[in-house]
Amino acid sequence: MNLSKTYSSKELQLITGESKQRIQYWILNGIISPYGPSAGTGTSRSYSFENLLEVLIVQTLSRSRIDIKIIANIMKQVKQENPEFFKLVKYEHDLNSQFILSINIMPDGSTHVSVITLSGLQTSFLPATLETKNIVILMNLDFVKSYLLERVVSFAGK
Asked: In 3-state terms, the chain is what percent helix, strand and coil (to 5)?
């Protein structure tokens, strides 16, 4: 599979199942940056596999009813601290380790975001984390990426 391919707005919508209006809203709020920005009125944007992945993550957070400003902060932190996750040209799922996006939203709205790599049965941190009074979200990024690849392959086959 060619992960360096770019996708049109229509393809992005079909693959992710997200509406044009919501994607445009996320772009205007700086949460998603298209691969190829439009050069003016009437021109179309192009999107990379990274953008598809960003849309799925933002979509999941948005459906969890997290405030858009918090989502913007989360995405900024993830991109800055873990750019390699979005830059993977070749993706192979390793069943022995998982990339988990850990988001801790404090009562004041501030966030602590990290990508944790779990190997084997390293899940002992979960009960302690879930006992806090903060909002804690754990997202398996390997699952998100696998799901996206299935959608891209399915779309390409149509």
From this structure: 45, 20, 35
